[in-house]
Amino acid sequence: MKFKVFDSYEELSAYSAELVAGVIREKEDAVLGLATGSSPLGLYEELIKLYEDGNLDFSRIRSINLDEYVGLDGTHDQSYRYFMDINFFNHINIDKKNTFVPNGIAEDLEKGAKEYDELIESLGGVDVQVLGIGPNGHIGFNEPAEQLNLNTHIAELTEETIKANARFFASEKDVPTRAVTMGVGPIMKARKVILIASGENKAWAVKSLVDDLISTTIPATLLKVHPDVTVLLDKAAASLL
Ligand code: GLP
Predict the structure, then answer these.
(1) Span from the CA of 237 to the centroid of ligand 1 (angstroms)
(2) pLDDT (0 to 100) of residue 182
(3) Cβ proximity of 154 and 113 under 8 Å
(4) Does 146 qualify as catalytic in the annotation?
(5) Could you tell me if the CB of 8 is within 6 A of ligand 1?
(6) Which of 51, 87, 212, 239 is the most buried (most CB within 10 A)?
(7) Is 15 in the pocket of ligand 1 (CB under 6 A)?
(8) Residue 26: is it exposed, middle or buried by C-beta count within 10 angstroms (0-12/13-18/19+)?
(9) Which whole number is the average pLDDT over 19-27?
């Protein structure tokens, strides 16, 4: 894993956008593995700027998102589909038909999960996977556990994750307790991974990523065996290193 520490979140974001832009310039129909949350917001802003300046073309790009809350449809303002549309897709020339987010309201969630894996397979896997990291070391919604799923599955969110994400909802009891998430399989098979962590509340998870052995109880540590991971940190996230 390569680590880079930046003085500011803005610099981190600009750098992350150049990494993603590099993949797009090399492969005009690249598959972007995308994440939600506050961590990649700056990345999306910078990619939008590159597009607006005529420096990036998304017309043939495909995207596949990591996760979605169970029970929220795409019009709910806390759904991850809505997040992606508002913060990124609506501002670039990507064809929405080529943007995929798991379906959190499928009648048969298990079937939907299986179909999501088939979709990832049919796209030829992920060229560049963008990841945030949970304060407990989760990636996507692959929460700390004795065992991790390779495939897309329905995850029960931990207390800690529900608390961490409550800031986006009216109250903690409004946070969905389950999510559909990509498993660790497609993340580990992605040709390139960019993990973004900013803020002091990520410092513990980042320290574990660096210092701890590989363990399913800190899912991000699996990335230690991936051949092409770049971890981008601001000073606060790197403060325990
Ligand atoms: C969420 C998402 C993750 C995200 C993480 C960190 O629960 N499922 O994909 O990376 O938590 O979020 P944030 O970037 O807002 O801190």
Answers:
(1) 14
(2) 98
(3) yes
(4) no
(5) no
(6) 51
(7) no
(8) exposed
(9) 98
